[in-house]
UniProtKB/TrEMBL annotation:
Family the UniProt entry places it in: Belongs to the peptidase M1 family.
Residues in the signal sequence: 1-18
Protein name: Aminopeptidase N
SUPFAM superfamilies assigned: Leukotriene A4 hydrolase N-terminal domain, Metalloproteases ('zincins'), catalytic domain
Alphabetized InterPro entries for the sequence: Aminopeptidase_N-like_N, Aminopeptidase_N-like_N_sf, Peptidase_M1, Peptidase_M1_aminopeptidases, Peptidase_M1_dom, Peptidase_M4/M1_CTD_sf
A Gene Ontology molecular function term of the record: aminopeptidase activity
Organism whose genome encodes this protein: Streptomyces africanus
Transmembrane recorded as keyword: no
Residue ranges of every copy of the Aminopeptidase N-like N-terminal domain listed in the record: 51-222
Length: 464
């Protein structure tokens, strides 16, 4: 970074001497090393927007060795003399921009690339990074494990909120979504399963290569790669929507009945949330109990063991809220978890269990017995990165939605759930966007107090 800072004034002088506008992009400055996320300041990078990731990977589980070539297609959002990618660990080999070798250097998770020529604002460019090594497991601020996780017979890559930089270089912030093509080669007998649709599978000698395609924009934290001797099932849901499930043989018995309900859950969710946003679905069930959480990886959620129906509903609801409508920053996490938790309540209500009102009341009356931290901070303003997966984000987030439902009525609330998913389909949204959306959809309803007390207020709100 220091080098490029030194270059800038010199180039400006050149332009001034030439007496013309700086053509040919000779006036670029470095892109930022982060996008100022309030919880993960180094996540993502400024100055460009990735439209496509092409990843070619090979993994040998026994040697725990990953080789990769990442080809990113991106658009410069300003004139750039250099830009950063996020990459953790691994060794970088060759880097090219526009087919030409580029200089690079690394500092922590920042890989700074300096193209031979500056990039113009608005220019589409292609950067390739060759890399290899032993991918790392990342420990989150809250102590949970993500990144590259070794399993007994393979590996599992999980990326919320920061683990994807452990297996490919990129703009690792939810605000930059892109299409993906992933080609993965593993030892014969193992399978490599990712998001989207399987476009090809070829075995040559002792290795098998799988090609996966994700056309709809995906945040990098939702990318996954699961390598293991899975049992595969390929069926269809409504209108021929492909359902691809990969299950660890040890989890097969416990998973069969619940995974068979994916089409039923989707049918219900489409009624509640609107059209399913992706072109395939499914699940990955690994034997990874020590991971301890499921993740809503796009189109194909990951479960660390056979899920129950509630967890399946939660992760499938995230396909609308989180995956299609993705938080603008990690501060907006409750837009994921509050909605997915509320989906559990709705499922329960629609299937002869507790009503959402009863779920709400039980939480209000004695929620702190189950969730000690329930009133410790408001969902719209998590204390810090270690608290993003806390009960105020999940359970109190769902309570915010229930308060909205009480204020606007069931019908308008249903329209808000579907309308919000439609308005930001395949995009990003933030909390202020949500409150403004509700106000627009329910004119004249008094919702200010909900934001003040339930979304942003400290402590336990008074019973109304
Ligand atoms: N998003 C996951 C779920 O609720 C849980 C999770 C995994 C998570 N990693 C996280 C939540 C990091 C917050 C932060 O299904
Ligand atoms: Zn969730």
């Amino acid at each position: 970074m220091a080098r490029s800072v030194r270059l800038v004034p010199v180039l400006l002088v050149c332009c001034a001497l030439a007496g013309t506008a700086c053509g040919g992009g000779v006036h670029g400055t470095p892109g930022g090393s982060g996008v100022r996320d309030p919880y993960f300041p180094k996540a993502g990078n400024g100055g460009y927007d990735v439209t496509h990731y092409g990843l070619r990977l090979g993994y040998a589980p026994d040697a725990h060795h990953l080789t990769g070539t990442a080809t990113l297609t991106a658009r410069a959002t300003k004139a750039l003399s250099a830009f950063n990618l996020d990459l953790l660990g691994l060794e970088v080999g060759k880097v090219t921009v526009g087919g030409e070798t580029a200089r690079w250097n690394r500092a922590g998770q920042e890989l700074t690339v300096r193209p031979r020529e500056d990039l113009d604002e608005g220019e589409t460019f292609r950067v390739t990074v060759g890399y290899s090594g032993a991918p790392e497991t990342v420990t989150d601020p809250d102590g949970s494990k993500e990144g590259w996780l070794r399993t007994t017979d393979g590996a599992l890559a999980l990326g919320e909120p920061a683990g994807s930089m452990a297996w490919f270089p990129g703009n690792h912030h939810p605000s930059d979504k892109a299409a993906y093509d992933l080609t993965v080669t593993v030892p014969r007998g193992l399978r490599a399963v990712s998001n989207g649709e399987l476009r090809g599978e070829t075995t040559a000698r002792d290795r098998t290569t799988f090609r996966w395609h994700t056309a709809e924009p995906m945040a990098s934290y939702l990318a996954t790669l699961a390598i293991g001797p899975y049992d595969i099932s390929r069926t269809t849901a409504r209108d021929g929507l492909p359902v691809y499930t990969a299950v660890d043989p040890a989890e097969k018995k416990g998973s069969r009945a619940v995974l068979a309900r994916i089409p039923e859950v989707l049918r219900w969710a489409e009624r509640r949330f609107g059209p399913y946003p992706f072109s395939s679905t499914g699940a990955i069930v690994d034997r990874a109990a020590d991971i301890g959480y499921a993740l809503e990886t796009q189109s194909r959620p990951v479960f660390p063991g056979a899920p129950d129906i509630t967890l399946l509903v939660h992760e499938l609801a995230h396909q609308w809220y989180g995956d299609s409508v993705t938080p603008e920053s990690w501060r907006d996490m409750w837009l994921n978890e509050g909605f997915a938790t509320y989906a559990e309540w709705l499922w329960e209500e629609d299937h002869g269990g507790e009503t959402a009102q009863e779920s709400f009341d039980a939480l209000y009356d004695h929620g702190e017995q189950t969730y000690e931290d329930l009133w410790s901070f408001p969902p719209g303003k998590p204390t810090d990165a270690a608290h993003l997966s806390g009960a105020p984000v999940y359970q109190r987030g769902a309570m915010v939605l229930h308060k909205v439902r009480q204020a606007v009525g069931d019908e308008a609330f249903g329209d808000i759930l579907r309308g919000w998913a439609a308005a930001h389909r395949h995009g990003n949204a933030d909390t202020a966007g949500f409150t403004a959306y509700v106000e627009k959809q329910a004119p004249g309803k008094d919702v200010d107090g909900i934001w003040e007390d339930w979304l942003y207020g400290e402590g336990k709100p008074e019973r109304p």
